[in-house]
Specification:
296 residues; 13 helices; single chain
Length: 296
Amino acid sequence: MTPDESRPERDGSADLLPVVDVVPEAAVAPAVDVVMRPLPRVIAVANQKGGVGKTTTTINLGACLAELGQRTLIIDLDPQGNASTGLGIENRGLETSMYHVLMHEVPLENCIEPTDVKGLFVAPASLDLAGAEIELVPAFSRETRLRRSIDAVLGDYDYVLVDCPPSLGLLTVNGLTAAQEVLVPIQCEYYALEGLGQLLRNVDLVRRNLNPPLAVSAIVCVMYDARTKLADQVVSEVREHFGDKVLRTVVPRSVRLSEAPSFGQPIITFDPRSRGAIAYRDVAKEVHRVSTQRVG
């Protein structure tokens, strides 16, 4: 018996529902009809809660989109730089990183590095980025610096995925202001919705003040453990509240997914036949299914 199963049964609604009741309706657009989204798409992958598989999702979604033939750029906005090292980019001693793009207006194209996956590129983060939160405070047009940088290269890519830090500071605000849509990974654990209400309120705040088209386009349940009833309960709760915004694919908890970043590889090259690789390929297909081809 696992620790989760040994706990007394709890009524999930008593703990999870109040968090979501305060979410602004505008932050999560209605999903009655499928919204088709033209390429190129800029997607912020965000969740203020740490350890929810956000960077894992960014890396592997990007790799799987590239595998589908979509030219994809991952922008690492997290000072920890895990999206960079997880794709084999050594982020120590970088001449140019996202810090220089944001703080010194270095062109984004000067920062972009190729990866071992064909069609997948990364704009790496360095530890200097940790100081950018403070340095951006007095900066002119501080919330829109990333958007201007992305606009200059957007024509070269089909997808731009922004890996936001697990906070609601100026780096995340830059990511949300630059994006057209937000993808939120949610772990299938008891406190899954903790902080989600605040994240969605911030999405709504950015939408109203800085970026009117912004909306949550997708929620993906990750770290699913089929051995626990709790995981099923969390998925059911999330689907009940967010409906068709929740992707059908559920990403399982997987040792291979955890191991892949230490080898600097996405799961599709580290273990192409693993459950994690299959799941993220399905996630990429769901995300890409609502894309329309670019005009011109």
